[in-house]
Amino acid sequence: MLRHLHPQPFPRRGEGGITLISRVNPMKPLKTLFLLLLLTLPLAAQGALEIRITQGVEGAMPVAIVPFAWDGGASRPPEDVAGIIAANLNRTGRFSPLDQEEMPQRPRAADEVSFATWRDQGSEYLVIGRVQEADGDRYAVRFQLFDVASGRQLTGYSIPVERSHLRRAAHMVSDIIYERLTGDRGAFDTQVAYVSLTRQDGDLRYALQVADADGHNPKTVFSSSEPILSPAWSPDGRRIAYVSFENRRSEIYIQDLDGGDRTRVASHEGINSAPAWSPDGRRLALTLSREGQPDIHVLNLADQSLTRVTQHRAIDTEPTWMPDGRSIVFTSDRAGQPQLYEVSVRGGEARRLTFEGRYNGGADISPDGRRLAMVHGAGSRFRIGLLDRESRLFRTLTDSGMDESPSFAPNGSMIIYATSEGGRGVLAAVSDDGRVHQRLVLEEGEVREPAWSPFLD
Amino acid sequence: MLNTLVRLQAVKILLVLVVVGTLGACATADRHPAGTPADEWPGGTDQDARAPGSLDPDVEARPLGRDDRPLAQALDDPDSPLSTRVIYFEFDRDTVRSEFVDVIAAHGDYLSRHSEARVRLEGHTDERGTREYNLGLGERRAQSVRRMLMLQGARDEQIQVVSYGEEMPAELGDNEEAWEQNRRVEIVHEGGR
Prior knowledge:
The structure holds two protein chains of two kinds. Chain A has three helices and 34 strands. Chain A is mainly β. Chain A has two domains: 181 residues, 3-Layer(aba) Sandwich (Rossmann fold), CATH 3.40.50.10070; 262 residues, 6 Propeller (Neuraminidase). In chain A, helix 1 packs across helix 3. The longest helix of chain A has 17 residues. By secondary structure, chain B is of the alpha+beta class. Chain B has one domain: CATH 3.30.1330.60. Chain B has seven helices and four strands. A four-stranded mixed beta sheet of chain B has the order 1-4-2-3. In chain B, strand 2, helix 6 and strand 3 form a beta-alpha-beta unit. The N terminus of chain B is likely disordered. The interface between A and B is medium-sized, with 40 and 26 residues.
């Protein structure tokens, strides 16, 4: 099922006395606005993830997202669009949205905005908007973004949307604002896959789930009484590869998100695990131990042919592709302790990448290929570390003891990872500068193994 | 550093005590969330041991190592080394500790005398480190046990190795007491096919 959300540039308006510069930001047609709606298969929703910002930030860009006006029958719109946008921007660490209580005014339209007031208040950018009820279940979400200093409108759109997709419209608005103000593409209208673990009548239930990037709308893709591991998104966001123990051993499956079609792609003797899609989506790097020890292999999905990439007595696992598709970064304990290495897809000599600390594994590469997020272990503490490949600068981003499975947002601005809170598995995210931390907590059970989706367009 | 060494020694002694204390009773049905509880084994044992006995009268009569009794009885005997089905490991190590050598040898000996017998070696780790790396480590532990079984005459086709990594802890909790229970290989006898 395809749904199109057509953005229409908003007519420019100015406050009396302030002249708008004639050129409105010529947003290139945003691919994100033509959406394939995933997950149309009948999926059971589980408890939503609740997000808690656990550490604030100073020095972020002050913005004000005024509560959106409501033109509709009911007393309130079904979602707090401005609140969703503010929470999204806040999570990145780059913005500091103004508390609604502290807003000097709540303009419903451009001609109600007093920029002088906002200048005094200190916000650098201002967003106002309105949710209009069209016919039946259809709404239009209109918004405008202003530069407070100049009073200029930087961008504005009207987005028609079905009632049930109002949150999604708020994420799209967030993406447009983020891109306009930072120059980088926003990643709010994306999703996260993860594995949940619940106990029902004493029986364990593992579920592969997909939720919005802010933890809302979780849907179950696959569930089993046996462990599920290592979900990996295909580059087009339409399929997920993962490890399932449903046959009491590790095997790799690929599942379509829009049709539910499910294929077993690796079931060799020994370990079948750690799937990672090549950037072109045609190959899967994986760990197989059919030759006696875990080694990195590449599976060509078209003809099922297998190429062995590493050949070492050590444990070689957790492959992840460089964005150019030519080399693979993986974990190996060939030097005695797990460290990260890089090897050509065609095999050959592997080059060691990490030297800091005695345990570095589970790498994820930033979309631009410049940074490596990893699980960094010291003693019995495991934290998320970030290595800048060019400068070789290494830093830890997190400060708890059981952090693993780092996964970059598709724009590289944040990293989601698994951690433990009071002995319970939870998901957490950290901005790439390490300044903003948040927890995503499932109402019941545990969550682990997060994987951030690519851009979904 | 010295302190650490002393503490390590203490932990080792404690480990041995724990292992000795759990011998025989260390079948993990109650703390094993999803795998095959080792407790299911005795039911299958009688059958497996009797069946070959009826085909080959010599088998039942043959003594097992230092044990003078027939095999079937030895398998059911809580005092037999065969009743130990869980082998524990040190952190991030896959070498079999000396106190388990005799146990594994007894299982290997049993397999070599019962060609129809099958075991599944389930390798496990504690929760520290990444899940995927731990899958590799769990397999390496199971392979260590497999090699020792084969030294005793067990054949390749009798042994299935599977790694669960850290996914099926025997004990929940993020402390050393739980971790040492979780770093293990479970020997699951599946009997004849």
